[in-house]
Amino acid sequence: MESEAMEIDGSVMEGGGQILRVSAALSCITGTSVKITKVRAGRSTPGLRPQHLSGLQLVSDLCSGSLQGGEIGSTEISLTPGKIQCGNHTADPQTAGSVCLLLQASLPCAVFADGPSQLVLKGGTNAEMAPQIDYTVKVFKPTMEKFGVHFDCDVRLRGYYPKGGGEVMVTVNPVKELQPVVMTERGKLTKVYGRAFVAGVLPYKLAKDMSASAVRTIRREIKDLYINIPALQEKEKATGSGNGIIIIAESSTGCVFAGSALGRKGVYADQIGAEAAEMLLRNVRHNGCVDEFLQDQVIIFMALAKGTSRIRTGPVTLHTQTAIHIAEKMTRAKFTITKCDDELSNDDTFIIECEGSGAANAHM
């Protein structure tokens, strides 16, 4: 039964890897073939990079699909999905490509499989331009549980830019359908904690400097909470050299936010710490319930859930607008974004509401 493939312009809006991840996952779940043209057309290196190709192959593998145009540099791909298969699946871009982005593409598919899945994801666990694995575990995972999605994440080895070599095993349990989520009450901040790390040949002092600088920066705005950011030397479970920091804030209603940064050549450690702290502060000032990074990651789950989800957030990012565009094109979900006007909101507070498409797992 060859249905006409849905055509998606890979250069619209955010115009990057996110279009590939959301389109491929929704193709897999809805059973709709997709043809994505102008893949990453606006990027300095257009077309598929190893991490995008690896993510597409993983999704294709999960849904016993057929992938055309699957080579590095390709600017047009087609995916014809089959049945979603549980079991063991591996993705290895053989670069420091982010394991967290591989999970973003594959997790929604595994949730609609016919049994539990083990995903072995290799590459960078703490990589630039992507969530750190600590973010996935501490921020993304508890939010997914609100949708009814349960997964375990075993960080076997941390890997950093440029070598990669990290490995994470994710075990996903399938669900019959996703529950809608309402997160509109931020509550008070109750906890600020994190980790500053060095790995490989880098001196431990860098971790201490990042931590101290982050605490100083946060103290300027959050005066009444104990801030716990231990400095850590990664030993056994790390390959290569890297340094970075992630800081997490929790609220009384169970909202979780984060700020993070990775060490870069020629940048002082205290600047890295301050950067992560500023990012966290920016994401708690607007009184929303999710930070700017979680915001776009929940869109696909809102679109698939059965019922109406409402999430209070800060400024709506281009990544989020892109995810909404693809989700509305590929499912029956309907999104609306409205400005918040209660006494706790400011000019940058919004509600994203979604009437979900109510995708059901045919195997359960």
Automatic annotation (TrEMBL):
It catalyses: a 3'-end 3'-phospho-ribonucleotide-RNA + ATP = a 3'-end 2',3'-cyclophospho-ribonucleotide-RNA + AMP + diphosphate. Its EC number is 6.5.1.4. It is an enzyme of class 6 (ligase). Residues 13-337 form the RNA 3'-terminal phosphate cyclase domain. It holds the Pfam family RTC_insert. Keywords: ATP-binding, Ligase, Nucleotide-binding. The active site is at 319 (tele-amp-histidine intermediate). InterPro entries: RNA3'-term_phos_cycl_insert, RNA3'_phos_cyclase_dom, RNA3'_phos_cyclase_dom_sf, RNA3'_term_phos_cyc, RNA3'_term_phos_cyc_type_1, RNA3'_term_phos_cycl-like_CS, RNA3'P_cycl/enolpyr_Trfase_a/b, RPTC_insert. Residues 184-284 form the RNA 3'-terminal phosphate cyclase insert domain. GO terms for cellular component: nucleus. One of its GO terms (biological process) is RNA processing. ATP binds at residues 104, 293-297. NCBIfam families: RNA_3prim_cycl (TIGR03399). Catalyzes the conversion of 3'-phosphate to a 2',3'-cyclic phosphodiester at the end of RNA. The mechanism of action of the enzyme occurs in 3 steps: (A) adenylation of the enzyme by ATP; (B) transfer of adenylate to an RNA-N3'P to produce RNA-N3'PP5'A; (C) and attack of the adjacent 2'-hydroxyl on the 3'-phosphorus in the diester linkage to produce the cyclic end product. Likely functions in some aspects of cellular RNA processing. Function plays an important role in regulating axon regeneration by inhibiting central nervous system (CNS) axon regeneration following optic nerve injury. PANTHER family: RNA 3' TERMINAL PHOSPHATE CYCLASE, RNA 3'-TERMINAL PHOSPHATE CYCLASE. This is RNA 3'-terminal phosphate cyclase. It comes from Eleginops maclovinus (Patagonian blennie).
